[in-house]
Amino acid sequence: MRLAILQSNPLVGAVHENLRALIEQAESKIDQADLFITPELALLGYPPRDLLSMRWLLEEERAALESLKEWTARTGRGFLVGHSEGRDGPGHRLWNAATLFWGGQSLGTVRKQRLPSYDVFDEERHFAAWPATEAQACFEVEGKKIGVFVCEDSWDSVTAFGKHDKLHYSALGADPRLSADVIVNLSASPYARRKRPARESLFREWARRTQRPWLYANCAGAQDGLIFDGASFAVDREGRILRQASLFRSDALVIDLATLNGQGVEAARPFEEWHELGDAIVTGLGDFVRKSGARSVILGLSGGIDSALCATLAAEALGPENVKGVSLPSALTSDLSRNDAADLARRLGIAFEEIPIGEAVELHSRLTQARPGSIAHQNLQSRNRGLLLMARANQEQRLLIATGNKSEFAMGYSTLYGDMCGAIAPIGDLYKTEVYALCFDRNRRAREAGRQEPIPLSTLLRPPTAELAPDQKDTDSLPPYEILDIALEGILENQGSPLYGREEKWGQLLQPRHTWASLRRQVLGQEFKRRQAPPILRLHDRSFGAGWQMPVAKGLS
Fold it and tell me: Among 138, 151, 219, 439, which one carries the catalytic annotation?
């Protein structure tokens, strides 16, 4: 039997378009495969969230399922598709399900048992869990048994998506699906840094444990702040990845079941962490803009490292012709910053404009009586920039990119209605030290490809500064980023504790101006700002946004 994983990039809620894309993918491989396999909830897109409460949309999905059944009747092929399914009884009225159509007939349906409701997931809001006590049968096709699991149902006593979000599932034990001739997992697994090797390790171990081949079907692309890395694969019974789909984009991976039972050759994609991290942002930003119905973006170019990286990745995601950078110098902006902003735009080939803000800042300073050098005066500069960028975005029908990073969002080192303005924050889940590392990596990749480095060396080498006060440096207010970022990782991703329990060591480095307690207070005290931030592309196990649910008003010790 020949199977094809349709690694799709659906748009949430666009049922007819998603159906058409799946059929086009299948028909491109119609002579090479007998059974086509989709990711989880492939017709609705993932995560559909409260769209699942819209009955008209669920009716569209039912009609799409009938169309797929008819397609299998016409072609004589099979389709294993992830979808929602209505149910009777009290409580949640939907299953998260997968149905196999073959030759115009439905051969059965499996329903998801383990509903993730942690971090960015909230499936229990709409779905019911299939009872663990009720077995789910294998599909039988052309003399072969196919066992099907939906995403989380194959995570067996492992760390899921967060370092401390352990799901203590009972072992699957004697589940009849584990003895099928081939086992398939339909998934919608979001990207996080370093997650792909862990995911592959899980299914390698499943294959070795069950002595059965496994197929993993993941979606690709991005939806709002979630990025899906694709990388669907086929694992033989010895745990070797024999076929693997592309990263971050739609693909159709054809597998002959016979090859998964013989001596295969390892074909897993090598893990290139920084390369993949940059490509994840490119995917997330590009899909956010396109799926929002826009074509082009605008952003402020300060001459600093954050806006340089955002502009570089935006040019990759959308093409330089669809990116515009604007320099907004004040009286405190150095010639180096202005020159670096213009040089970056030239290197990238993007549109560029300079709009001085000195007169506007002076006017608003008089109106607000903001004393020069005060925080209020510093914020006026940022807010004038935000005002002008938003006006340009409206006038030119572009989406505005917010260029803040995770270190700044964590510490509140950002201005509401100023540099936090925007439709999307593509590097809002990158610590400042990661921003530098990714910039060096993008420059290295350009050199190796024989292209000019996109980011000027002077931008990379100068000390970070917001240039909102004379001779200002970020270290005037913050610890050095190489120390701060490790502390922030402990606070944000290690349940508020120092990484590896090394509080004494990091406490010494943070003293005397900053302590663990003062950093925690500052991070937790900035929640009112983050609630008003634009959507952030999720790149770590825990990011600000849907997976960070912190009260605004709270006690801070």
Answer: 151
